[in-house]
Structures are given as C-alpha cells and as structure tokens.
Write a structure and sequence with these properties.
Chain lengths: 226, 181
C-alpha cells in the first residue's frame, strides 16, 4: 500500500539495484525472497508523540537534556571542530555530551557545515533513523543561509527546509566554545519543552519531503526510510 | 636515459607535431599537441622517455574560442621533471580518446570530466555513471555557460536578507570616508 508512495518519476530513471526484489540463500541453504522496499524499511509515516502528563514530561525532559548523545556524522569543515570538543581541552563529556557511532543510539544530530546534495541524502536517512526525541544543531553560516557557498550549484542554503533545526550556531567556523554554548542553550530548550523537532517533522512531513525531493533528483530510496 | 629535458623535447619534435613549447621552470615544460597524436605521444613518453608517473588530467573551458583545453601532466620520477601536454578539443559534443589503458587512474579523472564538463571518453570504464553529483539533470555544472548563482537561487531556497558589499568600496567608505571630497 505505502509502496505506491515510494514510487515517483525519478525512481525508474535512477534505479538502485540494491532495492530490487531478489532471492538470497541463507546460511542454512534456504531460499528467501527479499523485497528491500518492503522488508528493510519502515512502512508507516512518522507519528506525532503526544507528551505524557506535565510532571512526567518535566522529569523526562530533564533526563533527556542531561544526556545528549551526538551522532558522529561530520559534514563540511565543522566536523574538524568536533574532535577537540570531545577531547580533554574542551571535554564536552562533562556536560553529558557523548559521541555515538550510530543514529539508533543518538539524540542530537550536528550538521557541521555545508551540506552538498549528496550528503543531504545521507543526512536525511540518518536523521530519520534516529529515535524520538531528536534534536538538530546547525553549525556555521552554511547551514543558516549557505555561507560562502550560497551560490554554489551543489550545496543547500537553508537547513531548516529539510529537517527541523533546534539551534543554529553562527560563525565560519564556530569555535568549540560556541558549540558548548549551543549545547547549553539546547539543554535549556529541552527543559522548557520547546525542543520539539521530531514532532514538527512528523506534522509537516509532506512539506519536508517535497523540499527534499526538489533538490535530491535521484530519489531512489523509500519515503519512509528508517 | 641521461637526457636533459631539452634533449627530450628535441627528440620528441622529430616524431610529433609540437606547438607553443614553453619552459616555465627548469623542471616544468608546457607543450601543445594535436588531438590525434596525444595518445601515441603519451604512450611514447611512458614507455621510452621514462615519464612513468601520471600526475593529473585537468581541463580549462575557453568558451570564447569554443574549445576545451585538456592538460595531461606527466612526471619523470627519476629526474623530477614535469611535462604538461595541452590538447585543444572542440567544445561542441566534446569527446576525446581515452587514456585509461596507459594508467588506471586516468579513468577516474575522465569520469569526473564527463560529469563536470560533459567531455566524453568513449570506452573509459564507468565513465557514464554518476560520480560526485548524484542524479544531476542539468547541463554539466562546471561548463562556463552554466549559471550557478541562478541555479542555486532557483533550487535551494535562498534566505532573504542577504547582502554583499564590494570589498574595495566598503573599506574605502569605512576607512577614508572623506577621500573623494
């Protein structure tokens, strides 16, 4: 049913053979039919999660704010600022900020600089694979208005058209202190219950998808790809 | 093989048609060659003249003259000498003989040139697969007739309120406001 949504005009033109139906042989010698579009990907749209009662939500938000796990995904120049952030000089760990190797374990996604269209595709996949609640920090001028790549043919200008952004850090590049300040301000937002990006993404899912598909011309992945 | 670069060039001139020989430095020479002779020249340089290292292949878009200038840079690792072979090809339906059989890495350069400039290299491995740009459907973006600013404004939702200043005028007005009076 949902697979109809996954098809669009470009899917035929830029067919990804990895997404084709095929038969694989298991280690036991069984033949298994695999349809990646059905089997490997979620088939439902993201849902809006209603907050629990006020008291519980306040406690949850406190817990979320004090353990921000960051996805180790670097784009552009800003990814250079992340290693000093986690090593002894700036030591983000004392703020409860830890790096994680997989989107399934992360709650914060730092877009650390310019995003080319090719990277945007991967960033969207990673963002959708993260569990709710999830937060996005846009680092550097490039994520705000394109920065020095504002007239480039291959880099996006506004990150908030493709995924909901909680915090922007201006600068080219911001220093690690600025990123620490961004974490502090993100914590404040979470504790006030204002960091609601995942719900916003689910609510305006069609608008975000339309924007994403406008720039990613070879959209050969499923719409719900987490 | 104890030849200097000048002697190499002299021996080359007897076999190939060389134009605009320009010695930039003691170890860097630019030579313009004909499109038809280029591959045999590269083969000769690799096999007989000890220019075994292929440095890179790049292109310049001379839109006013209607040509692309391909530059093949070869290096002699023993004598530390570079020779740049320039080759002018037609801009319209640009196509060039592939050199991937001489050095494997040339195929990657050719793939990039096909994607960024639309220069075809028939027979080069995977040359028509997308390389950096996935799903590009406009004219190749590094060709000079491609208006990258317009494309960006049409595609990437520019944030309003951006202004740019001419650095010279801006600094002049800021530092010496009375200069013109």
């Amino acid at each position: 049913m949902e697979s109809q949504n996954n098809n669009n005009n470009n899917q035929e033109k830029f067919r990804d053979p990895n997404l084709d139906k095929r038969t694989v042989i298991s280690p036991d010698g069984q033949q298994i039919e695999v349809d990646p579009l059905q089997d490997y990907f979620e088939q439902a749209r993201p849902q809006v999660h209603k907050p629990a009662s006020k008291v519980i939500e306040k406690f949850l938000n406190w817990a979320r704010a004090e353990s921000l796990w960051v996805l180790g995904f670097g784009t552009g120049c800003g990814s250079i600022e992340i290693p000093p952030l986690t090593t002894p000089r700036f030591d983000a760990y004392r703020f409860g900020v830890a790096m994680r190797p997989t989107p399934r374990q992360s709650s914060v996604f730092i877009i650390s600089g310019y995003l080319s269209v090719k990277t945007l595709k991967r960033a969207i996949r990673s963002y959708e694979q993260m569990q709710n609640p999830k937060y996005v920090i846009g680092l550097g001028s490039c994520t705000i208005n394109g920065g020095m790549y504002w007239d480039s043919y291959n880099t996006i200008n506004r990150l908030d058209y493709y995924m909901p952004v909680d915090n922007y850090v201006a600068g080219c590049m911001p220093r690690p202190e600025a990123i620490l300040a961004a974490f502090e301000s993100l914590k404040k937002r979470i504790k006030e219950g204002r960091a609601d990006g995942a719900n916003k993404y689910a609510e305006h899912f069609d608008w975000y998808k339309a924007n994403q598909k406008k720039v990613i011309k070879d959209w050969n992945m499923p719409d719900y790809n987490w | 093989m104890n030849t200097t670069i000048e002697e190499t060039l002299t021996s080359l001139e007897s076999r190939f048609e060389l134009k605009d020989i320009k010695q930039q430095r003691g170890d860097l020479v630019f030579v313009t060659v004909k499109k038809e002779q280029l591959i045999s020249l590269l083969t000769h340089m690799r096999d007989n003249e000890n220019f075994t290292h292929f440095v890179m292949l790049s292109v310049v878009d001379w839109i006013e003259d209607g040509v692309f200038q391909l530059s093949y840079i070869l290096n002699n690792p023993e004598k530390h000498v570079d020779i740049v072979f320039r080759c002018m090809i037609e801009r319209e339906n640009a196509s060039m003989e592939s050199a991937h059989h001489l050095w494997k890495q040339v195929a990657t350069y050719q793939r990039e040139l096909y994607e960024m400039y639309g220069i075809d290299f028939p027979g080069s491995p995977r040359v028509h697969e997308s390389f950096i740009l996935e799903g590009w459907d406009d004219i190749p973006p590094m060709r000079r007739e491609f208006d990258t600013k317009k494309y960006s404004e049409d595609t990437y939702f520019p944030r309003p309120g951006r202004e740019s200043k001419d650095p010279k005028e801006h600094m002049k007005n800021k530092l010496y406001p009375d200069a013109d009076k």
